[in-house]
Amino acid sequence: MKLILSICLIIFSAFTAFSQKNNTTLDFSREVNIVYNTQIPLVTTTAQLFKKDIEQVFDAKVNFNQKNVSKASLNVILRIAGESITADLKKVISENDKKITGKWEVFSYINQLKNQKQTLIITGSDARGLAYGVLELSKKIGVNPWYFWADVPIVKSTSKEISVSDTISVEPSVKYRGIFLNDEDWGLQPWAAKTFEPQTKDIGPATYAKIFELLLRLKANLIWPAMHPSTKAFYHFAENKIVAQKYGIIVGTSHAEPMMRNNVDEWDDKTMGDYNFFTNKDKIINYWETRINEIKDYENYYSIGMRGKHDSGMEGAKTIDKAVETTEEIIQIQRYLLKKYVKKPLNEIPQAMTLYKEVLNLYENGMKIPDDITLVWSDDNYGYIKGLSNETERKRKGGAGVYYHASYWGRPHDYLWLGTTHPALIHFEMSKAYEMDAKNIWVLNIGDIKPNEYSMQLFLDMAYDMKPFQEGKSVKTHLSKWTNALLKSTQSAGLLWQYYQLAFIRKPEFMGWSQTEPTRATHPTTFTPTQVNERLQHYQHLEKEVLNNRPTDKTLADAYFQLVEYPILASSKMNQKFLYLDKFYEKPIAERDNNDVNLQAAIQNYQSIQDLTSYYNNQLSGGKWKYMMNAAPRGLPVFNHPEKLLKVEQKVVAESPKNIKIAAGDYVSVKQGVNTFWKKIAEPSFSGSSVVSEPFRLGKSLDSTKTDELPTLTYQFNVTENNTLVDLSIVALPLHPVQMGLGQRIGIQIDEQKVQIINFQTYDRSEEWKQNVLSNTAKRTLKMNKFNAGKHTFKIFMIDPAVVLDHFVLSFH
Ligand code: REL
């Protein structure tokens, strides 16, 4: 008894000591008083959002800036480091302020309990840091950042106490983090114009407010606004920039729109002449100057340089040298204008030179870019980054960044409908970029936001804090946490993972096996009959799981539909449409008839896509998303009714029974170099066990003649009969050299034969590159001669860093 009593006493005193010193639970059940400085628009917005959040979750009464608060109240003080505070809190706060002052977007929490009065002080090193701290708390009380954009329900809380411990947040890994709204013509634009914001008939201030709120809640800070012809320029609506300021979002413009202009909407050839710097220089400079003058007092990230009116090369430059020379001149003029109006030293004005498409060629051809401009590297539109900074470039004051696609319009084929970029690919490429010091700006081409919600979350989470990912947090874990938080579902992540994996083999938009330009007739897939059946079964099984996994809690149904059900089912139906057509095509054209079961199944799947999409647009969330989902963007042939695809030649893909696949991670031995090595990775991969050559920052290719020193993988295979002919295919991911001047090379030696060098590198938009990105593979085949019966080996030597080998295929003839 005595013992029990003393244990109780210890627990009791420990509890009182803890709650006196550092109260970590906040009681929202009574009055909440939010104290904040009303002079800063973002702080006001944050306070308002927080008030609304609290009121939606608790029944508490929320006041602003009450001087005399009752003892029972919870005071939440929102402040920026250095701002004054009441005398009794000064001591507490001064140490904290010292730690965060001068940092970028950092926040801290300090709890105080005095005389039964609770105070939580949220301090930001700057206004955005403060907003992140406050909205992090909103998330904690149950307001998910996706509450509006994915209808994640806000649940009334029965437990009023939320634990918050004294903390100082990380400083974001990447300084500027955001999205590019692009190719919005089939989703975001019609939805905004006809459903959400009919008053402007466009993506206007009301829509932007919602987008900016999402960005802020996801701890992002940057937008490249929508810029397609269907949308008015961002600055067309004077209020847009004020809304951006209210939400603390920095505005930039895409790679094609220097100096905060949208040429498609704002440059009128009829009245302004050609958008040609060679023939119309003064008008163009004036056009830029007017805009810079207009927006100089806002927070902007300036795109520098000049391309064509839209997404094309600069007009009028007859040679690449001329384009280089003229772009250099243009940059000087633009910097003169920035200096004149923005009134800051140039190295404090964020400026981006996006090395996208032909601009990368200009850079490769020697274009000089002033040191304080950020080099924004880009992917090849399909998720493979085309280059990153070398050692010298890494020393640039302006640093580097990445522009990355999760959605794309263009050659060889669009993917504007669903969001299927493999999260593991995003993770791999962006981790590589981070390691190569691309830390100044990350922009994700997110299409219409929906249905690319998860790509956006992952990209921005990595940009905000890379550490957990560097320390081994897998993307799968990230996805699980996300679906758990949004859908209270442990199964959904596994289902989505299968969806991404199947789309890694072939995206739903690529199932027509056609290309955007020229528009070819859609033809049968190149899956073998066995693969067709396996893929069909996989999708059909997945569909069942998706339906079985529907949340029992009906309030989660809408979120589940848009985040899990629609993308997976729609992608499955698109696959089935083609896979059943493949079966149908097995019959010669003359024998095909309209009642064929396979054709009927294909038609049924086509119809299901229409039905699912109609539900998305008309019934989901009570019609909130009307016009958001278009299941045939740009009307490409892949989206056609199967009857339009009937007169297609059969294409027989022969099964190869004598193929042996070896996952690249299944080597029999590995020898590492001194500071160079092969690393096994489970994803992104087809085989589940790939290898990657590292370190990424090696900065050079290894000497292929010194095979003894090269990291080496050894594989074995058996041949049963003498004089057997075997081909060896090496399948890699279609990565690009990690920096200019390097390749995508490996050495390969079969038995004791000579070492051969293989390079997976592709150039520009070659046919090979097109096939690679459509299949996520790069392949080389060694036609081998005869082998005698017995055990044979082949060795793979590392030459270039950042080569990912997936698997090998031995084809026995
Ligand atoms: O993905 C891109 O960055 C470009 O292709 C875009 O700038 C462009 O607007 C494209 O959507 C086609 O119009």
Model description:
InterPro entries: GH115, GH115_C, GH115_sf, Hex-like_dom2. This is Glycosyl hydrolase 115 family protein. Keywords: Hydrolase, Signal. This protein has 813 residues and is of the alpha/beta class. Helix content is 35%, strand content 19%. The longest helix has 29 residues, at 557-585. Residues 1-21 have low confidence and may be disordered. The protein has 21 helices and 27 strands. It is globular. The strands form 5 sheets. The chain has an 8-stranded parallel beta barrel with strand order 9-10-11-12-13-14-15-16. A 6-stranded mixed sheet has the order 3-2-4-6-5-8, with helices on both faces. The chain has 4 domains: 16-168, 2-Layer Sandwich (Chitobiase, domain 2), CATH 3.30.379.10; 176-313 and 350-472, Alpha-Beta Barrel (TIM Barrel); 498-645, Methane Monooxygenase Hydroxylase, Chain G, domain 1 (Up-down Bundle), CATH 1.20.58; 659-812, Jelly Rolls, CATH 2.60.120. The relative contact order is 0.07. The structure holds D-glucuronic acid. The site of D-glucuronic acid has 11 residues, from loops.
